[in-house]
Design goal:
129 residues; GMP Synthetase, Chain A, domain 3; three-stranded mixed β-sheet; 4 helices
Length: 129
């Protein structure tokens, strides 16, 4: 199996699942669900589908909804894709985006504590020896 196949399968599954979820899954109001990435195993047996949910407090409810509809989504995916085997999909909450958001918050707090000019043009320090 070529190494190029898995990334292509990842892109195909992400594209098809995005369309299916958009059309066929009902989420609570004021919730944004995004498929961030798909990681398919090298043997194409399993595909981990990472999702990002805004607001983050609703992530467990969204994962619960996706868990209930995974069988239906899998069947629809099986009919749409012209390949064998078709990986079994599994939904996972994306934590990397949350962590990146936290890093941005921390950087913003650091910048608020220091004037911008001081960050861009730090004062030279002289060491007395």
């Amino acid at each position: 199996m070529t190494t190029e196949r898995v990334p292509r399968v990842n892109q195909l599954i992400k594209k098809e699942l995005n369309q299916l979820i958009l059309k066929e899954t009902d989420f609570p109001e004021r919730v944004l669900v995004t498929l961030t990435r798909v990681e398919t195993s090298p043997n194409l047996i399993q595909a981990k589908v990472y999702i990002s949910v805004m607001p983050e407090e609703r992530a467990s409810a969204v994962l619960n909804i996706l868990g209930k509809t995974v069988y239906h989504l899998q069947q629809r995916l099986n009919k749409r894709l012209k390949m064998r085997p078709i990986p079994k999909i599994m939904f996972i909450e994306e934590k990397a985006i949350r962590e990146a958001g936290r890093v941005e918050e921390l950087l913003e707090e650091i910048h608020k504590g220091n004037p911008k000019s001081e960050i861009r043009n730090p004062k030279p320090r002289v060491l007395n020896l």
